Amino acid sequence: MRYITYCILILTATFCLQCDIINPEETVPAFLYIEPFSLQTDELVQGSASEKITEVWVTVNDEFLGAYQLPATVPVLMSGEAEIFLEAGIKDNGIGSTPEIYPFYQPYETTVTLMPDQTTTISPTTSYSRDTRFALIENFESGTSVFRDTLLGNSGLQVSSTDPFEGSYSGKIRLSADDPVVELATIGAFTELTDRSPFVYLEVNYQSDAPVIFGLAGGAGTSNPNIVFDPGFNPKASWNKIYFNLSALLATSPYDSHKLALRAFIPTEDGQLTLNNATVCLDNIKLVHF
C-alpha cells in the first residue's frame, strides 16, 4: 500500500512538472500607446507644418518591435526603464502597400518606465533633420507661382484666395472640355539634388476633381526637353497630403538639371471626357533632398 501511494505521488509530481514545462508562466507585457506625430517647422525656411505621418517604426532598448499604423498600441515584453526610439512613416507615393520611414523627419527619442499590464502614452513630435535641404518651397503666398512654364494647354496655374488649404493663397488649375489637359513646368531648373544622397521627395497638399501626375523635365534650356511623368494622385474632394518619391526618376536620368513638371487632365472613357469641368488645387509644394 505504501509503495502504491509513493508511486502515485511521484507520478503526480512528474505530471505537474511537465505541465509547467509545456505551459510555462506567461510574461505579462507592458503597453505603449503612441499618438500621431506632430511636425514642428521653422516656417520661414522649412515651410508649412502640414504632414501625413501614418505609421511609426518602434524600437525599445535597441530591439526593433515592428511598424504600426497610428495611433498604435504596442505590447512590450520588458519592464523597468526603457529607451524608446520612434521613426515617422509615410505612404510612399500615397500607396498604402508601400509604407516607408520618411528619411527627412527626425526620429523621436524618450525614456519611460514600463510596468506589466500598464499603458504608457507617448505623444511624439518630429521636425525636419538638420541635413534636409529645400530646393523648392511653393506656398503661393507671394501671389505668384514658379509653375509659369506652360508646356501644353491654355489655362495655366492661377494663384487664388478662394478656399486655400492654409494661409491666404493656393494654386488653381481649371480644366474644361475646351482645355482638358494642362502641362506645366517650373521656370527654373534644379541641380545637385542627389549629390549627397539618392533620396529626393516632393511633398504636395492637394484637393482635386481630376488626376494629376508629376515628373521631371530633363535637358532644361533645350528646344526639346525630355519629360518623364511617374507619380501622381487621383481626385480627392477634401484636402490631402502626399509624398512623392522622385529618387528612382533621378537615378535613371542622364541629365544634370531638371525642371519640376506636372500634368493635370480630365480622363476619357470610350473616347469621351468624363467631366466637362474640373479644378485642381495645390499648396505647400516642397522639393526636399539632402
Report on the structure:
- By secondary structure, the chain is mostly beta strands.
- The protein folds into two domains: 30-127, Immunoglobulin-like (Sandwich); 133-289, Jelly Rolls.
- Helix content is 10%, strand content 49%.
- It is built from three helices and 24 strands.
- The protein has helices at 2-22, 43-46, 247-251; strands at 30-34, 38-40, 55-60, 63-69, 72-76, 80-91, 99-101, 108-114, 119-122, 125-127, 133-138, 149-152, 158-160, 170-176, 181-185, 190-191, 200-208, 212-218, 226-233, 236-245, 257-265, 268-269, 272-273, 277-289.
- Strands 11, 13, 14, 17, 20 and 24 form a six-stranded antiparallel sheet that branches. Strands 12, 15, 16, 18, 19 and 21 form a six-stranded antiparallel sheet that branches. Strands 3, 4, 6, 7 and 8 form a five-stranded antiparallel sheet that branches.
- A hairpin with a 7-residue loop joins strand 18 and strand 19 (226-233).
- The protein is elongated.
- It starts with a helix and ends with a strand.
- Mean pLDDT is 92; it is low at 2-20.
Cα shape:
elongated
Largest sheet: 6 strands, antiparallel
User: What is the count of distinct domains?
Assistant: 2
β-strand percent reads over 45%
Low-confidence stretches: 2-20
Query: Helical content, roughly?
Result: 10-25%
| Order of SSEs | HEEHEEEEEEEEEEEEEEEEEEHEEEE
**Oligomer description:** single chain
Distance between the termini: 84 Å
**What is the mean predicted local confidence, pLDDT?**
92
How are the SSEs placed, and which strands pair?
Blueprint: H1 2-22, E1 30-34, E2 38-40, H2 43-46, E3 55-60, E4 63-69, E5 72-76, E6 80-91, E7 99-101, E8 108-114, E9 119-122, E10 125-127, E11 133-138, E12 149-152, E13 158-160, E14 170-176, E15 181-185, E16 190-191, E17 200-208, E18 212-218, E19 226-233, E20 236-245, H3 247-251, E21 257-265, E22 268-269, E23 272-273, E24 277-289
Parallel strand pairs: 1-9, 2-10
Antiparallel strand pairs: 1-5, 3-4, 3-6, 6-7, 6-8, 11-24, 12-15, 13-14, 14-24, 15-21, 16-21, 17-20, 17-24, 18-19, 18-21, 22-23
